[in-house]
Amino acid sequence: MNGDTIDKTSLRQIARDRRRAFVSTLDPLAHRLAFKVLPSPLARRIADAQVVALYMGLDDEAPAQRLAQQLIAMGKTVALPRVLDRLGSMDFLRWQPDDILLPGPFRTSHPAPGDGPVTPDVIIAPLVGFDRAMNRLGQGGGYYDRAFARLPDALRIGIAWSVQEQDMVPADPWDLPLHMVLTEVELIEGLPAAGAVA
């Protein structure tokens, strides 16, 4: 690594500090209204999707779960991730907003297994940082990296506060870029997914 680059661990800390500072000064009403509506271009891109995976935002993460009601109104099945082990494995379980969630590792929570895992057509993922090349900086556990690799045809969408944008996020050879990033102020589109509706 040369002096012009920064490692992912340091970048994560910088991004978390920036996110925490931003959310702490955000107007409570603006926070409550953020991420409740899918922008029209995103709604069109997921029109044919059957299963959309969200996540339950923790602390100052962008609250993806707020999109659930609109997705359900669009006829989508909504799912949440379930962490299976500490080695980076997770699957996705069907979820309704009034379902009781069970505790999982790393302060995660997930629905009851019900009929078992579902396969998402769209994965809406948390992130610590992102750049305009659609590189995603995650928590470092590799859970979403493995899910993206296992489900390469799923549309990969990150949700973040706008302050989480970085000039450049280092990408390893195994990192799959996102197709889109949704912030509270804009939808940033990268390359279309295979078979996606433009």
UniProtKB/TrEMBL annotation:
Cofactor requirements of the protein: Mg(2+)
InterPro entries (UniProt xref): FTHF_cligase (IPR002698), FTHF_cligase-like_sf (IPR024185), NagB/RpiA_transferase-like (IPR037171)
Chain positions recorded as ATP binding sites: 8-12, 136-144
Pfam families: 5-FTHF_cyc-lig
Binding positions (substrate): 56, 61
Enzyme class label: ligase
Gene Ontology MF, one: 5-formyltetrahydrofolate cyclo-ligase activity
A single BP term in Gene Ontology: tetrahydrofolate interconversion
Spans traversing the lipid bilayer: none
Enzyme Commission number(s) from the entry: 6.3.3.2
Key words of the record: ATP-binding, Ligase, Magnesium, Metal-binding, Nucleotide-binding
Catalytic activity, reaction form: (6S)-5-formyl-5,6,7,8-tetrahydrofolate + ATP = (6R)-5,10-methenyltetrahydrofolate + ADP + phosphate
The family this protein is said to belong to: Belongs to the 5-formyltetrahydrofolate cyclo-ligase family.
Name of protein: 5-formyltetrahydrofolate cyclo-ligase
